[in-house]
Structure formats: C-alpha cells, structure tokens
Design a protein that fits this description.
The chain is low in regular secondary structure and 342 residues long. The protein is built from 5 helices and 13 strands. Residues 59, 80, 83-84 line the site of one 2-acetamido-2-deoxy-beta-D-glucopyranose.
C-alpha cells in the first residue's frame, strides 16, 4: 500500500513542471497532507482546508506557501499546527471563530515570510499580536475590534494594506501611537466603524483612505497637510455638511477619486484639476454653477481638451435637489467629462 503510494506519487511528480520545488519536497508535502485537506499535486505549495467544518487547524505540511482555512469553526490559531510552515506566504482564516485568546503566543510571529493575512469575520476585539514584520496585507474586516494597542504595528514597514472595516473602532482607537510603524501604508479601510472625527496619525504614504459609513461631521482645516499622496478618498454615508468642509480642503495635489455620497452637502465643494471621479449623489445640493466650481478661470480654457485642463471624467449628482437643465458652463469647463448622472 505504502509502496503503491510512493510509486504513484513519483509518477505524478514528473507532471509537476511549473513549480521549482525539489522532488523530495513535493513528496514530503504530499505525504504530510492532512486527511481533512486537499493538496493538489499540480501546485504542491497550496493546501486547501476551507469549508470542512474544521474545529481545529490540522498539522500543516512544511512546504506550504498558500494555506486556505476559511469557512470553518476554528477557534484557536494554533502555534503547533503551524510550527513547520515557516515558508507560509498567504494565510486565509476568514469566517472562523477565532477570539483574542485563541491566537496562541508566537503562532503568527513564527511565520516570518507571511505576506497576506486574512482573518475577516472572526471574533477578535483587538489586533492579533505579535504580527510578522513581513506582512504586506492585513485584512481584519467584520470582527469586533475596538482597540489597536500602541506599538502593535511597530517595524511593519512592508504593510501596504490595512483593512479594518466593519469593526467597533472609536476616535480614541486610531491615533499616532496606534499606527506607529506603518511607514509604507498605502490603503487603509476604516469604513463602518464608530468614528466621529477624521482618524489621526495616518502615515504620509497613505494614498487610499476609506471612511464610509461613520459619523464624521467635519474635516479639520490642516487635515491633509501631512497626507500629500492622497488619491482615493471615500467618505460616503457620513454627516458632512458644507459647514464642516474648509473652503479648499480637497485641493490635494494627487487626488483622483473623491466620494461624498449620502452626506448633507448643500453645495458642490471646490476640487483641483487632477480630480477624475466625483461622487456627490444623495446630498442636498440645489444647484451647480460650473463657473464657480471650475478649477481654472473658465475664460482661460481654449477649444482643445487635453490633460493639462480639468480632468473630471465622471460626476454623480443624482439624489439631490438639482433641477435640469445642466448648467452649460459645466460642459465648457470639464471637457473630458464622459458621464454625468443627475
Ligand atoms: C514538523 O516536522 C517534524 C520533522 O519533520 C515532525 O517530526 C513533526 O511531526 C512536524 N510537526 C507538525 C506539527 O507537523
Ligand atoms: C455662476 O457664477 C458666476 C460667478 O460667480 C455668476 O456670474 C453667474 O451668474 C452664475 N451663474 C448662474 C446660472 O447662477
Ligand atoms: C491644453 O489646454 C490648456 C488649457 O486650455 C492650454 O492652455 C494648453 O495650451 C493646451 N496644451 C496643449 C498641448 O494643447
């Protein structure tokens, strides 16, 4: 029986062409495949243990790079089960029952090459710690996270994406202290939390900031001063009125996409030439004056539509109190406009 297994494995090994994995590793990997999981011979670095109703993590074979454990009943992130998986790059634990206490000391730290960690839809109330410094993406949506312990991200300068949407973070939770160390952060998602003010302490590298569905009423005048790369800003479903927006608050050199749908704006805020997408639907805007919102004096625009003029391509204004027709100067100013929803 055992001999047969070895022979059949050897035969299959020859069909493994794409992976530069030594035969003995492929063999070791397939032989150590837990019975609860599936280890495809064609991609020996991948181990699928998802959707199995598992309560615990089985012992994972040593040459695993991608490990799928989502949609189970796992409540403990076991140090022992992951002890040999030092090459792990990608770990998906979405939709399980892991609590703070369930994250065993050192279970994550040992995964010193981990790049993606997904623990969405679990029962965490804080950021699991200590995290491997190699992480580039951390997805913790829809837990019950209400605090970010100071220093938890210290040394994590590879982390580019931090997704914390659908948690219970209040204003006191997101501070310079709590985010310290994230010197390479590009995208941060804090949508669907309990923020009443704009989060502080975001690193200067932040390019995408998602804050939809919070209770934010205003943006402080100097808020974007230390965020020069801001390009995608989403504040849909908040409580912003024009009183809460300083006059040139969105005059950001890199801004491309600004979403302010479902707020309480009564006027179109000013925005710079660079902006390509503007979502202002479902506010209380009564009229749009193209001359006033044009980022350059409208008289200075010539016939040619080019990239050095206003770059707005898409504008949503539906769900406001605007009556047609669209003001003609809007079309004159925004020559590149392809769609306007009203
Ligand atoms: C880890 O590898 C060692 C040596 O190959 C082996 O004895 C042990 O059972 C493995 N542990 C787990 C949890 O798989
Ligand atoms: C738009 O604003 C300009 C400049 O403030 C003003 O001269 C013009 O009358 C306004 N247009 C409309 C239709 O209100
Ligand atoms: C582009 O448009 C701007 C504003 O209309 C104009 O000043 C500039 O000369 C144009 N540049 C080119 C290369 O056509």
């Amino acid at each position: 029986m055992e001999l047969f297994l070895v022979i059949s494995t050897l035969l299959l090994v020859s069909s493994v062409s794409s992976q530069d994995m030594p035969y003995e590793h492929v063999l070791a990997q397939l032989q150590a495949c837990p019975k609860e999981c599936r280890c495809p011979r064609s991609s020996p670095h991948v181990v699928y243990c998802d959707n199995r109703n598992l309560k615990t993590i089985p012992n994972i074979p040593p040459h695993t790079w991608y490990l799928y454990l989502q949609n189970n009943q796992i409540d403990v992130l076991s140090e022992k089960a992951l002890r040999n998986t030092t090459q792990l790059r990608w770990l998906n634990l979405n939709h399980n029952k892991i609590t703070d206490q369930g994250v065993e000391e050192g279970a994550l730290k040992a995964l010193s090459g981990l790049i993606h960690l997904q623990m969405e839809d679990n029962l965490l109330t804080t950021i699991p710690t200590p995290l491997p410094a190699s992480l580039e993406q951390l997805r913790l949506s829809r837990n019950k996270i209400s605090k970010i312990p100071p220093g938890v991200f210290s040394g994590m300068d590879h982390l580019a994406l931090l997704d914390l949407q659908g948690n219970k973070l209040g204003d006191e939770a997101v501070t310079e202290q709590s985010l310290k160390g994230l010197s390479g952060l590009v995208q941060v998602n804090l949508a669907k939390n309990n923020l009443k003010i704009m989060p502080s302490g975001l690193p200067a590298t932040t390019t995408q900031l998602y804050l939809d569905s919070n209770d934010i009423e205003k943006i402080p005048p100097e808020y974007f001063k230390d965020l020069p790369k801001m390009a995608f800003l989403r504040l849909n479903f908040n409580k912003l009125g024009n009183g809460g927006l300083p006059k040139n608050i969105f005059d950001l050199p890199s801004i491309l996409d600004l979403q302010l749908s479902h707020n309480q704006l009564t006027e179109v805020p000013l925005f710079p030439l660079s902006l390509e997408h503007l979502h202002l639907d479902h506010n209380k805007i009564k009229s749009v004056n193209g001359t006033e919102i044009c980022p350059v004096p409208i008289g200075t625009l010539d016939e040619s539509a080019n990239e050095s003029g206003p770059r707005l391509r898409y504008l949503r204004l539906d769900g406001n109190e605007i009556k047609p027709p669209i003001s003609w100067d809007l079309i004159i100013c925004f020559r590149l406009l392809r769609a306007i929803v009203i």
